[in-house]
């Protein structure tokens, strides 16, 4: 029988040695800093030697720690490669994403080819609806709102950049349509109108336009299609209509752009953060969503 300490002790040590930080290791392992400290102390007791010392520059490895660290890193690399070599693809490699429908259609779908080429062993399942009994199966939740959730790991991907637009056919001799003479198109979120028109009108100093009048829709895609058909004027996140702005089918009514207060947040339950497929998607999404 092999005389080895707990594999969890070794994993904790490898994480601390890599980050040179107890707090960063705790974050990566989804445990408390106290739990990390206890595991390191137990491993030091087993070895009979200190592994880390604190210096004015931060945490450093002792001579024993420096000797142990590369061997453990290589050992974990070997284990990971061995498991990957024999693992049979199954549903555990399916990444389930819950996302707003328009964001998924207009933003995510345009970037997915790069992710799929980079990580061919991860199958994606993207949905905009989840029943109560299926929420536990969701790996990553892209949520629209004004702030992140506190019950999970939440990070801001991007803030909306609102501009008022109209169909090109509503412009006459290069002049934009009068805001008072066309219906305003409104987006509903959780049964309530988003105050994008009120925010935009306040930013341009217009108090002669009734922000309450107009038509309301349950999805942003419906608003975009109605605006394209000339059915009204809309305030839309320009990142959702890059194609229409580029081909001139939708034109800005003024250059004014209002940042926020709404944005898209990536949220991951604490018990999902350690999954490699989740980490890879999170890292990739953070890079491609930067303006």
Automatic annotation (TrEMBL):
<dbReference type="InterPro" id="IPR058163">
    <property type="entry name" value="LysR-type_TF_proteobact-type"/>
</dbReference>
<dbReference type="GO" id="GO:0003700">
    <property type="term" value="F:DNA-binding transcription factor activity"/>
</dbReference>
<keyword id="KW-0805">Transcription regulation</keyword>
<protein>
    <submittedName>
        <fullName>DNA-binding transcriptional regulator, LysR family</fullName>
    </submittedName>
</protein>
<dbReference type="Pfam" id="PF03466">
    <property type="entry name" value="LysR_substrate"/>
</dbReference>
<dbReference type="GO" id="GO:0043565">
    <property type="term" value="F:sequence-specific DNA binding"/>
</dbReference>
<dbReference type="Pfam" id="PF00126">
    <property type="entry name" value="HTH_1"/>
</dbReference>
<feature type="domain" description="HTH lysR-type">
    <location>
        <begin position="5"/>
        <end position="62"/>
    </location>
</feature>
<dbReference type="InterPro" id="IPR036388">
    <property type="entry name" value="WH-like_DNA-bd_sf"/>
</dbReference>
<dbReference type="GO" id="GO:0006351">
    <property type="term" value="P:DNA-templated transcription"/>
</dbReference>
<dbReference type="InterPro" id="IPR005119">
    <property type="entry name" value="LysR_subst-bd"/>
</dbReference>
<keyword id="KW-0238">DNA-binding</keyword>
<dbReference type="InterPro" id="IPR036390">
    <property type="entry name" value="WH_DNA-bd_sf"/>
</dbReference>
<dbReference type="InterPro" id="IPR000847">
    <property type="entry name" value="LysR_HTH_N"/>
</dbReference>
<keyword id="KW-0804">Transcription</keyword>
<comment type="similarity">
    <text>Belongs to the LysR transcriptional regulatory family.</text>
</comment>
